[in-house]
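Slide 14.
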Amino acid sequence: MRAAPLAALGLALVAAAPARDWSATVTPNAAAAWVIGNPAARVKLTEWASYTCPHCAHFDAESRAVLKGRMIRSGSTSLEVRHLIRDPLDLAAVAIARCGGPRGFVGRHHAIFDGQSRWLQTGAAYLQKEGAALSKLAQPVAFRRIADAAGLTAIGKAAGLTEPQITACFAAPALDALTRLGQAPAEVQATPSFFVNGRYVPDAGWAELQPVLRQAGAR
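Slide 15: predicted structure.
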């Protein structure tokens, strides 16, 4: 006996709605940190990082395909980025990363780490040569010059920032706000440092962190 068409049985074929991609969603939280991904994710990863830390850049590159491309994208995992500002170049990099607000932060965050080997070397040489002169300038002027000389401003503009936005981000009120981003907990003795659902994961790189995230429910 030939089966009747589904339409004849009054049944409609409904295409499954595509899953939401959370990987570009960024939400500020009460600590003034920015959370990448689903704010209600089951697995909440917090990373204390420094843009001048080579280990942090290595982690960002090594983990990106799975952490951002799968775990955060799926909505199962969120990443709260906390900045451990260690030196003038770090502050200049954070100013560019957070400039323009949460929208576009993910791209700027990755771009700064991707270009770290270049801008860090250039910026360090500039500070060594011009440090005495910079110390006599107002902080907004000095940090903008550091960002320009290192190549951080160029990274920001390539990621879509405008000159007026960058000017505002190096004004005194914006720089002062960056220095109040929060004190790292006692467990954070180096970068990167990680907490999963509030629990510190000691001595972790991506190889050690990934199974912890999986066990907590990341997918």
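Speaker note: Strands lie at 26-28, 34-37, 43-49, 77-83, 193-196, 199-201.
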